[in-house]
Specification:
By secondary structure, this protein is mainly α. It has one domain. Helices cover 67% and strands 4% of the residues. The chain is built from 15 helices and three strands. A three-stranded mixed sheet has the order 1-3-2. β2 and β3 form a beta hairpin.
């Protein structure tokens, strides 16, 4: 896409790199250890997980903004066709290449973030016949409206059984066995479709406004809304926080609203925080800026490569150190190991992503490149 906004590429590159940290942690932490176990976690371990909460909301919002910036360069029918086919392509990748990369077997099908992003693109393609403001209204309506019906997005289904299956598919994370095969859906479609539609609706403002002032204002407002709603400990999140006897743990719980599915409070925290960060990224220069832009221009290529590489690295480490396929539960947790493995992964992916970006730039007429 021509006329790219460098600060948005840097933000996208940052969140894709942080996403890799989250996945490296999954493969390099002892089995069963969780940064959200309030009886044992520490602030450094919790923050390693917390910063990655920002990845999915920002990536989905930026995907919507990108669609809004891209479509004016094409006819509406061309844009809808591309968005629909790309969404279905992502939904196909999730239970095949991505799911296999997570488990290295065919016994489990995992429906994760790319499943939700692809589904959100399909939903957005159906909304594009509306004017931009109409799409924005639908996106905000979904995002805010779900907060008024917490029983729709709760972990335990509360709706009538006749509607439960369809609602679970669109609204609630779930795991179920079908004909001896386990399906695990951690990301659901409808809340993320609301985020993407909101991003599409905001694309015009992003293109025409003073992005630094606009993002500061949005960030301050959303963070304040997060603090107020989270402090109320009721409306806007199905995962209430509570006091804990361990020092600092109450604050961790406060900063840990529901991500599965994403609540209104969660989205205010993450999108608001990223909006505050955007002006800083706009002023970033030198090698850090170039590295983030390289990652941010080819996020799909990065995603499809990083997951099997991180899994292979974790498998190799566990085999060489412990003689098993995963680090055992009684092994010590090493944040240094996780950060080192993450740094090596980024270092290895950067030249590959740079070459792929150059290929896309050199051959903009190769349609298949747009899907990677």
């Amino acid at each position: 896409m021509s006329g790219r906004i460098p600060s948005l590429d840097r933000l996208r590159g940052l969140v894709i790199a942080l996403m890799a940290l989250d996945h490296v942690r999954d493969f390099f932490q002892p089995a069963g250890v969780s940064p959200e176990n309030w009886d044992s976690t520490t602030w450094p371990f919790f923050l390693m997980r917390w910063v990655t909460h920002f990845c999915a909301p920002i990536f989905v919002l930026l995907a919507g903004i990108s669609v809004g910036l891209y479509l004016p360069k094409r006819s509406k029918r061309q844009g809808i066709t591309f968005l629909l086919t790309r969404g279905l392509w992502l939904m196909l990748l999730e239970p095949t290449w991505i799911s296999f990369s997570w488990y290295f077997n065919l016994e489990v099908t995992h429906l994760g973030v790319m499943w939700a992003i692809g589904g959100a693109m399909v939903v957005l393609s159906l909304l594009l016949w509306l004017p931009r403001r109409g799409v924005l209204a639908v996106g905000l309506g979904i995002t805010v409206g779900l907060a008024f019906f917490p029983e729709w997005v709760s972990v335990e289904p509360q709706m009538a059984s006749v509607a439960r299956t369809g609602a679970d598919f669109l609204l609630r994370p779930q795991g179920r066995e079908v004909a001896g095969h386990w399906f695990q859906q951690s990301y659901v479609i409808l809340p993320w479709a609301g985020v993407m539609a909101t991003g599409y609706g905001l694309a015009g403002a992003v293109k025409n406004a003073d992005l630094r002032k606009w993002s500061w204002l949005l960030g301050v407002v959303l963070v304040l809304v997060f603090v107020v709603l989270r402090g109320m400990n009721g409306f806007g999140d199905p995962n209430p926080w509570s006091s804990h006897p361990r020092p600092g743990t109450t604050a961790m719980h406060f900063l840990n609203p529901s991500k599965y599915p994403p609540s209104l409070v969660f989205q205010c925290m993450t999108i608001g925080g990223a909006a505050l960060l955007l002006p800083l990224l706009a002023r970033l220069e030198g090698l850090p800026a170039r590295v983030l832009e390289v990652f941010g221009k080819v996020p799909m290529f990065f995603y499809l490569l990083h997951l099997p590489l991180a899994h292979l690295a974790g498998l190799a480490y566990a085999q060489s150190r412990y003689g098993v396929e995963a680090i055992p539960a009684d092994a010590p947790l090493s944040l240094t190991l996780i950060l080192g493995a993450w740094a090596l992964l980024l270092l290895g992916l950067w030249p590959l992503c740079m070459l792929w970006g150059q290929l896309k730039q050199k051959h903009p007429d190769w349609v298949w490149l747009r899907y990677l």
